[in-house]
Protein 1
Amino acid sequence: MRVIDPAAVTSAVRNLAIEAACDLEPDILDALLAARDRERSPLSRNLLELLLTNSDIASREKIPVCQDTGIAVVFAFLGREARVEGDLVAAIQEGVRQGYSEGYLRMSVCDPLTRVNTMTNTPAVIHLELVEGDGLKLCLLPKGCGSENMSGLSMLPPSAGKPGIIRYVSELVVKAGSNPCPPVTVGVGIGGSFEKAAMLAKQALLRPVGEPAGRPDVAELEAAILAVINEEGQGVHGMGGNNTALAVHVEIYPSHIASLPVAVNIQCHAHRHKEVIL
Amino acid sequence: MSLLRFEPKFFADLIKVTLPFTPETLAGLEAGELVSLSGVLYTGRDQTHRRLCALLEQGEPLPVDLRGQLLYYVGPTPAKPGQVIGAAGPTTSYRMDSYTPQLLALGLAATMGKGARSWAVRQAMRQEGAIYLATIGGAGALLSKCIKKSELVAFPDAGPEALFRFEVEGFPAVVINDVAGRDYYEMVAQKRGS
């Protein structure tokens, strides 16, 4: 049994928070570059150019890519042969608190009813999962809410099938217009139960942008949804063009015979995600 | 029309506009035109709106005279030592829709954020001769370079949602709703459909 020091967890999460805010990962940068090269609308092409310039400035000068540095969503994958000596959840929360404060990031978390800001950007949303091995993998997804607010979930009748799924997901993304800061990455969770579908949709965003699903029929479904969204022609920030979405990632899970839950979690073009393995 | 104007050097081609707007400038701007803003503007998002409208309801004076001004929907990241401001891109505007008509009735000339406005806000803009601009969502680092001065005006306890006064230079935006009632998002959609 490998023992992991909670102080190491705190320090790792702190660093992930600061790095995620200012440095986009190669997967999203490559996706934006590819979108610029295939964009047919001159205005959308210009806007993509500006977004790439923005990420350059952010990384060089360590200014957050976007002022919405998000609510911190943390996935912790703990190996069965590893043990954190102490409170793993508290260690993650402390890392988020330190990262947002020391990194000059925006405190964007408040009481849902009184709307009073906690001024620490905590609590983070933490998902724990047990996996093989003796490591601890921490994935941080600072989630901006322009895109989060445009997400949705529908309990479709199984008879809706693939056409129903394609229609629901594409209509939701198109209806969101420029609100979620397109070009977006669309996380889709299909199956399981109500909450499982939502979790799958979020987890789908952890996959490198544009990497197709392992199962061929799922990858085909991803391509079909992406094509329908982009045919609508909303383009970058709703200014017209053929890049409304960069990618659709679908994760599936077996569902009840009576049920076809479909959840859609939309991510903006400033798709910030970082991970580390302890 | 305006679509062609965006083609080459983005910033060089923008229409230069000085803030606060004059009624003539406001009336001259058309949906779809790209502008470069320089001068003074005020900021506010969810909490600022909630508080401003609460003050109005109680008959209290507002901490700032909004007549003729531009209200920018932004909650910036804090400035690091030596910086004017942190990242400062737009937030989604529809969340302010329920408050906007009251502020427009006071004489607020323009608002700026991202995303479409409600029918009620569009009606109020037409009635009051106000406009709505969108700037580049998710370009907070780039836009911070256009902010030359930042000053806290009110609601410091709201943290990032406080009301600030910015002095901007060459701040890029697109006119979405003009005084004639046109909506650029709709125009783009119609163009696609035709």
Note: The longest strand of chain B covers residues 163-177.
Protein 2
Amino acid sequence: MTNTLQPTFDQLAVIIEEKLRIPRDQIQPETPLKDIDMDSLAIIEVMLAAEKQFGANIPMEDVNSDGKAEDLYQLVLAAVGAGGK
Amino acid sequence: MRTAEVNAAGTRSAVICGLGAWLPPRIVTNEELTTRLDTSDEWIRTRTGIKTRHFVSPGMPTSHLATEAGARAMESAGVTEVDAVVLATTTPDRPCPATAPVVAHRLGLTGRPAFDISAVCTGFLYALSAAAGLVVSGAAEQILVIGAETFSTIIDPQDRTSGVLFGDGAGAVVLRAGDRGEPGAVGRVELGSDGSLADIITVRAGGSEQRTAQEPHSPADCYFSMRGQEVFAHAVKHMSDAAQTVLTDAGWQPQEVDRVVGHQANLRILHAISERTDIPAERLVVHLDQVGNTAAASIPLALAHAQSTGELFPGARTLLAAFGGGATWGATALTWPAVKAL
């Protein structure tokens, strides 16, 4: 997997924006998920969409509802780096 | 598990020929729940899609609902006799004995084999698979398959998370022996389980684990509990995977599926499955807005609802899928028959 094929934070932010109708400029790496009203199921919805888009198998048990957007991004990166599905 | 392979050489199959449903008359709105729980109609609707559910009244155990739905399914099929009764339930009348014999007795079927199946929200598909196997093997010509629940009896009235999700109800189908090529023939039922997930959907107390435990149980252990975030993720993945397996088996492309009758737990789960499997969202049958999550009853109740609204029609390529406690999951694909819902 080369760096050019790695998902960017912006791609994940677009998924969050589209699924949850949260303005893109409110989604920054340091944004706490609770601050943008992402409930526990919404986070899973986003990660399921990320799985499909990036062809990865994300360990959902590692998702932390009290975390930040960057934490979700790191889970996506790790899953893609692990070789996808 | 491949039901169809039981009789791989022949074409004998179990065919759906009757469909019945029954809901207790008492309707509980989201507004009513807000009088005793710290929640709101808006919160429940936006997060689950549920607007109302039905609750049983005093003196109305699961056998009552199962008998009502079973009688309607038999009337729909035009039969007064079946060879066996299979009841899927999470909320039996008693821990012992099973509830199905009581239901069979009330339906005038005393003497026939009758047994319960416990697979929580996947219970109806497990029961359908077991019953179809009995038909295919030649052990039975006609079987009544019921999913019935009184979840209102196991939810914690003070739990604002799980307390708003569930409802009571029962649905049933009659299977008859027929040919694999007929509309309504139940083909492969893809089933699975993962006991490492036993804690994500559970009633901890009431069984041998609690009675042999060193520590006393807490009052909350007597009620249903669910870890929603984990259930959501596993439900979407397992229901989608099982659905894709049976679609491949049936030779159907996702866009060719006319109706998805998925377990009615949460509208967001159904939409996530639609997205994951590429089946258009408008093909989803939605009944949970009216009845909530009725566990093992949800698929036959949704079938009856969709039949009565015309969403299900003879020849419709229909996908059934469920996920439940255990964890358990399952899916099957069938061509919908000409059947009347009562």
Note: The longest helix of chain B spans residues 228-250.
